[in-house]
Each structure stands twice: as structure tokens, then as C-alpha cells.
Amino acid sequence: MLSVKESVGESLSAQAPTLDLHEIQATVLRPRPAPYFGTHVLLRIDDAQAGRKFIRRLTPHIASSANWWDATKTWLDVGISYAGLEALGVPQDSLQSFPEAFRVGMAARARQLGDDGVNDPKNWDKPYGTGQVHIGVSAFSDSEEKHQRALAIAREQYEGFSGVSVLAMQDFGAQPGDRNSLGYKDGIDQPPIEGSGADPLPGQGRPIKAGEFILGYPGESGVPLPMPQPDILGRNGTYVGFRKYQSRVGAFNRFLRANASTDEERELVAAKLVGRWRSGAPLTLAPDKDNPALGADPGRNNDFDYANDPRGRQVPFGSHIRRMNPRDTKLTRLTDVNIHRLIRRGTTYGLPYDPNALSEEDDQVPRGAIFLFMSAKAMATIEFLQQEWINDGDFIGANGERDPIIGRQEEGATFTIPKEPVRRRLRGIQTFNVLKGGEYFFLPSISALNWLATLGE
Amino acid sequence: MATQTATVNRPKQDLAVEPKIQELRKLFADAPELAKTALENSLPSLKELLAEAGASQSESAGRIGIRQGKVSELTLIAPFAPGGAQRLRTLLRFLDGNFSAAKKVGTLHDQRFVFLDNDTKLLFATAYDGEWDPYIDDFATKIPDEMDMIFSALEGWPGIRSPKIKDWIVAHQIPAEGWFVAHPDLTVAETARVKRTSKAVEEFLDKIG
Question: What is the pLDDT of residues A414-439, one digit of tens each?
Fold first, then answer.
């Protein structure tokens, strides 16, 4: 099983999976390859019959999570927005069984998501937030050649007949390695899912009930979550928050330079913002100096808690990873950290990070990440995180501050680094990743796709 | 029973002051003499307040209720289930103000239980930070028994773990028409931090003084 552990960073469990892996789309359980290549294709359905024909043709090519740990890492997934379900002719009572946040879409939930100021939907790239994005198809692969082949297969299913139009295509990938647009190794800490057939990695914590991530299974409270109807449509599906960010690399680099006088200091500030060195090595295990070997080792790079760091001297309370997974941090509000986790697939696009990019023009160079955030609690998880853990700091004692990496910053925003004898407060924090668009999708099971394809027959 | 819709419908505040004064005078025309006198006496300061009210601090607290700064209000009126009033009264008497679950929640500034109409209804009112909606699921996994023990006194309480719980709360919540908070920027957590800082500063001053 060594190959599995090395290739996808997971270790197989002695216990057989209890989830319907053949039904669940691969993106839900399969980690992103490293390095990776891919494309997101956004489509509009102009004719219900054509839309169903497209789904019917595409479904045999959609990968399930069966053997999700398999090293053959090229696959297609498909998500459908509420407008897309309408366009496919899903019956009214079924449409109404979807939760409100999903129905109105991400742009209409700007208040709950804190998407205002520079992140306001009125500033988004087209076609996001226009109600026209009906279907999102993504190709993932570990090689450019296989990626192009997968994309060609997807294209064959919508080309050659009218009624389905491509609105946008966005290539993504990170090579070599898997550094994101600000130069960090990312995607390290994923929630362990009960019944998926993998043992948690060291430091991942106990497995979380599958119902938090996949519809049709009990969640952490022991009760199954509300599911869209009919059963065949909802079961084994999940919801995806799809968010496209533009990285303002110039602003980020200027901030780092303004707050550090040497390269070493700069890297330490960069590490404090995230809680990990750019190599992925966590500050808890490598508090003073980077340790790239540690960062690269999935058996060790997530194996820590905050028991010895109650004051944030190693990992600041306001840092990105401590916010996104507070682990055993004592929070100010009654919180069950296990019910606010998301499966996330970050897909970096554009030019690689450039440590010497300093100008305002560099902020405009297309470069950033599209995130796929998955949760079975519809959009409640992502909206909670945006509201409480990203665009606020009260919950963890970082009062008045926001997530330095993905927060939407106010004028005069700061970042506090707890320190002896007195804290250090960094000024000049800006919105380093600007939201350029997003959509809420439903990621149906394979059976649900077949159901959708044959609607009205 | 609350029948209000889920959003607080607040009139636009940018109207000129004079029409508002006229409207008030009209409404007060039928009022008792002492009310009319009070209005006239208050006019100078009232005009200032009305002029400032355009930059009103009140906003919606999520699905229902109002918020000032970071502090929101929740008022709920619901009929008691059979025997519910007796159960809750006894529980509250034994607890004698010792609400450990409320303290654990970390966002509650206060809460009160008022028995109405000959023990047929409960009025529950609280001031809390942010929105209640996002944390309901946390109550369901962290303090389900504490919640159900108290609120099962109410007719139709579906249980804190029920998917219907949010709709039940909204259906019984009545948004306040007025809401004042002395320190709208101070959450419970921030207040604790300010107290700690203040104590440390006093100790420091004591040492150097």
C-alpha cells in the first residue's frame, strides 16, 4: 500500500469502505494529483432536451469514487446549478426540495458570505452570478496529455448539436510541485471521512461522519441531513461552493517586504500569515526555520495540535490554517469544529507565483485559484466559514481581524502575531485574494445523473 | 402568536426631518395632554436625533430580528406544552440563575424567561452576538440535552437536532421595533478580553505607581 500512501497522501484502511463509492463522484473523495493539470468548463443549457442529451452522453465518462485511491488520476466531474436543474426540466416539487441558499445562488447570498466591497458580485467576471451558468464540468489529471484527452471526451459530448453553449473555459494546474499563486504548498489538511476506506493521516483527527459531506448518511448529530427529493436525485450527492479568486501578488509581495528586512524575515512573516511555511511545513513543528522535507511528507506535515501553543506564539490565532481548522484551540464560542469542515479542491490557475512581482500591474495578471468547497449541509458550511471564521476573528480571539489570505479586508486591516513580551501588529493587510466570481453547484451521484438524463421520458 | 414575516421592514430614514415632525404631531393629536406637551418639549433634541437617524445603526440580524453593531436581539413567544410551564418553572427555580450552558455558548449577553397569560405562554428574550442561525448545528451536537430540557416546555418544539428547528424558531420570533445597545461593538468575547487587558494595565500601573 506504500504506492497509495505516496501518490495520494492517504493510507488505506483495513476496514472496507461503507459508502456507495460507485455512486459518489470522484472529486468528492479523490485528492488532487501533484503536479496537476485541468480545466473547468462552464456551460449554459438553452434547450431542456438538448441539456438532458448532453447529460446522458456525458454520464458514462464521469468518474465515481470507486478506487478513489487509484493512482490513475485523470477524471471528469459534473456539477449542476439550481438554474441548471431548472433548465433541465426538473419537476417543480423536486426543485423546491433544495435549500433556499442553493436555489438563489452564490451571488444572491453575498450578504451571508460577506462578499462586499471589492468582492461584491457586481465586480465579478462574466458569466459568474448572471444566472447563466448551468453546468460546470471539470477535468483533472496528473499529466497534460491525459488532461487534454479527458477534455476532448467532455467536448465530444456537447459539441455537434445545438442547445448547449460553452460560456467559459478555465485551465488550471500547478507544475512543478503544487504551489498556489502566493507560493504556498496547499490542500494539505483535508477532513477524514468515515467509511471512505482510508485511515486518517497522523494529525487528521478522528473520522468525521460521512453525512457531513455526502447526502444520505448520518451526520455528526446522528441524524441524516435533509436531502433533495426524490431520493435517487439526492442520495450520494453533495453541494459545491465554486469560488474564483484573483491573487494580488504585487500587493502581497509589497506587504511582505514592508514588514521584513531580510529574505528570512519575509518568509517568517509569510509563514505566520498562513501557519505553515511555503513548503507546507507547519509552524507548530518547525517554529523557527523552514523544514522542506517535513512539508513534503504527508505522514508528518499535518501531525500536530495546538496543545503546546495556547497563546498563538507559534501559530497566530488569526493565521489561515488555525482559522480554517482550529483543532483543539479554545474558542470563544460554543463550537463543534467537526461540523464546520469542508472537503476542498483548490485549483490554481495562471502564471506561477513570482516573488519579485511588486507592481500594481502584477496584481492584475490573471493568476489565482478556483476553489471547490464540498459539504452535504448545502451552503451552510461555506456561509458559516465566510461569516465566522474568515471575515471575523471574534471566535478565536483575533478580534477585529479577518483571514489574512482569503478575507475581504477593511481599510486599515491588521494582523497580530502574538509574541513575548509584546505582540507584533502588522499593518497594511489588504484583500490579497479578490473574489472574481462563484456559483453554487449540486454534484449529483451517478444514478442521479442517469435520472436527470431521462427526465420526461 | 407571531405572524410577522421574516424580514424587518424598516422605513427609509433619509426623509427630511420636518415631514417626520408633522407626522408625529398628527399622531399625537389624539394623545393625552401630557403626551402632547412632552412631544413639544422634546422637539429641539428630537429634531437632532431624527436628523442623525439617517445613519441608523440598526440592521437585520440574519433571517429575523435586529442588530446594533455586533449585538442582536431575539424575542420569542410560544405557548407552553401541557405541563411545560410547571416543568420549566421548577427547573429555573432549581438552577437559580446558574446557566452553565448559556455561559458555554459564549455569545449570550443575557437571557430571560417570562411566563405570560396565566402560565399559558413563554416570552424568551436574549441579547446575543452575531446571528443565531450559523450556530444551531453546534448546539445540536454540543448541548442538545441542555437545549431540549428547557425548550421542550414549549408546544411543538421539534428538538434541537431536527432539520425543522430553524423554521420553528423563526415562526415564533417577533422582531423588536426598537433596540438599544450601549456598546454595540463589544461582543461577549471582546468584553472578556477588555476586562483582562484592563486588569493587566491596572496591575502594571500599581507596580510603577
Answer: 999 999 889 999 999 999 999 999 99
Successive 10-residue mean pLDDT values, chain B, 209 residues: 43 69 94 95 91 71 84 96 97 92 91 97 95 87 94 97 92 94 94 93 93
Interface predicted TM-score (ipTM): 0.82
Closest chain A C-alpha to B140 CA, distance in angstroms:
6
Residue of A nearest to B160 (CA): A221
Cα radius of gyration (chain A): 21
* pLDDT tens digits for range A302-337: 999 999 999 999 999 999 999 999 999 999 999 999
Within 8 A of A377 by CB-CB distance, chain B residues are 137
Cis peptide before A99 (omega within 30 of 0): no
Chain A residue with CA closest to B143: the answer is A334
Where exactly does CATH 3.30.70.100 map onto chain B? 61-172
Are B189 and A380 within 8 A, CB to CB? no
Q: Is the pTM of this model over 0.80?
A: yes
Instruction: Determine the residue of chain A that is closest to B135 in CA distance.
Output: A335
Residues A263 and A389 in one domain: yes
Which architecture does CATH list for B61-172? 2-Layer Sandwich (3.30)
Instruction: Let me know: does A109 contact A86? Beta carbons within 8 Å.
Output: no
CB contact under 8 A, A221 and B104: no
- 3-class secondary structure per residue, A401-440: CCCCCCCCCCCCEEEEECCCCCCEEEEEECCCEEEEEEEE
